[in-house]
Amino acid sequence: xxxxxxxxxxxxxxxxxxxxxxxxxxxxxxxxxxxxxxxxxxxxxxxxxxxxxxxxxxxxxxxxxxxxxxxxxxxxxxxxxxxxxxxxxxxxxxxxxxxxxxxxxxxxxxxxxxxxxxxxxxxxxxxxxxxxxxxxxxxxxxxxxxxxxxxxxxxxxxxxxxxxxxxxxxxxxxxxxxxxxxxxxxxxxxxxxxxxxxxxxxxxxxxxxxxxxxxxxxxxxxxxxxxxxxxxxxxxxxxxxxxxxxxxxxxxxxxxxxxx
Length: 260
Hints:
Layout: E1 12-14, E2 34-38, E3 54-58, E4 61-65, H1 72-85, E5 91-96, H2 100-110, E6 118-122, H3 129-137, E7 144-149, H4 153-156, H5 162-167, E8 170-174, E9 177-181, E10 187-193, H6 198-210, E11 215-218, H7 224-232, E12 237-240
Parallel strand pairs: 1-2, 1-12, 2-5, 5-6, 6-7, 7-8, 8-11, 11-12
Antiparallel strand pairs: 3-4, 4-10, 9-10
């Protein structure tokens, strides 16, 4: 079983990739409203911006393709660990990895950073049952959230073996992948955001709670009423994503189009 309990109070978190690498007092959401802060996604080695970064609006939301820019795990720690240490709320590192060897290396490095309160593991798109089993076999010194893309929840859930479920504290929903034509006449692949995702989130939460998996719901959450509904439907927490780019929470209304 996990060595630490996952306690979210308040029950809100930001989603990875939304508010940067540390809790900034100038954040668009008052930090006291968050039960935990999730860092931007962190890889083992540095990653530069995608050459063809794109933001494409569509009815109900937008597609974002950036390349997950970050200075690598050591670079993030060197730059932000002191700010994590001064944070008024718990800081969770969101890490993504190419293989389980990378994951083991990243866990070993982060275990040297007592200022981290937990890890959110972003599953790679290639993950299969064997590699999920290997993730479950690892030893963790932190509470663990396993983030599953919203479009893969129904496919991944049957593959979550007992060992893995014993080693994680909760799953969270990540933005689904999609594709849209861009203004150059080709296809851009990226992550989808926006209020149009909420029905998908609510249905996925019903699926995870029906089999007793603690779930942090996310994607398409744009109003306090939606937060309340997700909590009433069994979510142990809620992650807010692009709604925070509007500058306030709770928001004044639920209409939102990203600006290029």
